[in-house]
Amino acid sequence: MKIARVIGSVTGAIKDGRLVGQKLLLVDIVDASGAVLNPSQVITDTCGAGVGDMVLLASGSAARISPETSGAPTDETAVMLVDEITVNNQLTYQANSG
Amino acid sequence: MKIARVIGSVTGAIKDGRLVGQKLLLVDIVDASGAVLNPSQVITDTCGAGVGDMVLLASGSAARISPETSGAPTDETAVMLVDEITVNNQLTYQANSG
Amino acid sequence: MKIARVIGSVTGAIKDGRLVGQKLLLVDIVDASGAVLNPSQVITDTCGAGVGDMVLLASGSAARISPETSGAPTDETAVMLVDEITVNNQLTYQANSG
Amino acid sequence: MKIARVIGSVTGAIKDGRLVGQKLLLVDIVDASGAVLNPSQVITDTCGAGVGDMVLLASGSAARISPETSGAPTDETAVMLVDEITVNNQLTYQANSG
Amino acid sequence: MKIARVIGSVTGAIKDGRLVGQKLLLVDIVDASGAVLNPSQVITDTCGAGVGDMVLLASGSAARISPETSGAPTDETAVMLVDEITVNNQLTYQANSG
Question: In degrees rounded to 5, what are phi and psi of residue B63?
């Protein structure tokens, strides 16, 4: 799985009917320090993520295991809101608790 | 999923019978600002996309979920025409409404 | 899907029995202008392609949808001989009609 | 499959219910000499791996074959703790036996 | 599929039970001239390959089609020992017949 930062969203009126009702988030895949590895992925979401959140992405058929995305033509889904990242027993990322 | 810009098409007479009747579009995968990330992908389409359109691509088995592509030997399909891309609450792309 | 140019072939006597009778072509994945993007892929073929031909590749489970490759341990198959590539309404590639 | 070094972990309270109880490890994919090839992958684990361990990763649907990960929305799982890596009949990596 | 050169092996005592009895080979993915494209992949094997052999790799679910690897959590398997590679009708690789 990948770590990604939510940076925006993508919308469209003409689409596969199985995408209706799916919020499509724009994310950058990042490393543990937040540096961008792969920009501009579009994902479905099962966690209520918003701009600025760090999320965990499941790709391929794993993106369609959750009931929220089952049957939708998606290949990448946020399956967790990241609260903390720890590297070598040091906390390197912590979500705002505000 | 990926954002892609439609730049052309590919045709051939000798092909798998399950591709007959599928329009095969040539696209470049782009980032949210339109810069090319991966050129020259060929896709099937469920949205009636044409040259200049921005589309959302589903890859792998997700490309064959729509009834239009089910059973076809495709690994990448346009599942939405992109109308708007928003980054950090700023509109960065808007399809021509002409 | 990807565009690829057939450059050769690969053979071997000791192999999975489900590959017996499959011609294994060596291809380079190319962009719409023919420049190499990823060299030296090996593919199964459903189109009778030969050296010099441009083909369309289906990857992953899409490579095993055709009856010719169903059940074979392949992850990449030529599903169309490319006759023409059009970019921005200009013909950029045309197969020899000889 | 890939070789990876465990460098940390990722946690979150809001997630797909099928990830509850799964420890999510942060790893770097490395080559046989330990140099990083792809940083910051997040994986599920079937081996009880911890920081500093070298593990073998299975990706895609292979990540969900083990009973520990079956049904979870994961695309990458540690399926072995690496004890030894041998290159050209020379031992190049050996896990601490402490 | 990919061409790869076997360079070593990887072992471990703690692993998924479905990997018991599988020899895990270390390979570099190479191009048709033998230059390394992607180092340090770990594969299962259906061909009895050893160090120095050139093999053909099937990835993803194709890696689990052979009865030897069916049910194992592997995503990459050697499905052929490469005897000859031909580029533009010139023999560019031939396995030692010793």
Answer: -75, -10
Question: For B61, phi and psi rounded to 5 degrees?
Answer: -65, -20
**Smallest CA–CA separation between C77 and chain E, in Å?**
9
pLDDT 10s digits, B35-79: 999 999 999 999 999 999 999 999 999 999 999 999 999 999 999
Quick one: which of B89, B57, B68 has its CA closest to B23? B68
Q: Provide the H-helix boundaries in B6-98.
A: none
- How far off is chain D from E89, nearest CA to CA, in Å? 32
Could you give the C-alpha distances from C30 to B7, B25, C6, D74, in angstroms and in order?
16, 16, 10, 32
Q: Which residues of D touch A86 (CB under 8 A)?
A: 8-11, 26
Q: Report yes or no: D61 at the E interface, CB cutoff 8 Å.
A: yes
Q: Does B80 touch chain A (CB under 8 A)?
A: yes
Distance from CA of C75 to the nearest CA of B (A): 11
Q: Tell me whether strands B36-45 and B25-30 are parallel, antiparallel or unpaired.
A: antiparallel
* B50 in C contact zone (CB under 8 Å): no
Confidence of residue A7 (pLDDT cuts 50, 70, 90): very high
- Write down the architecture of domain A2-94 according to CATH: Beta Barrel (2.40)
Among B58, B63, B87, select the one facing A8 at the smallest CB separation. B87
Q: What is the ipTM of this complex?
A: 0.95
Nearest to C5 by CA among C76, C56, C54: C54
Report the amino acid identity of residue A27. V
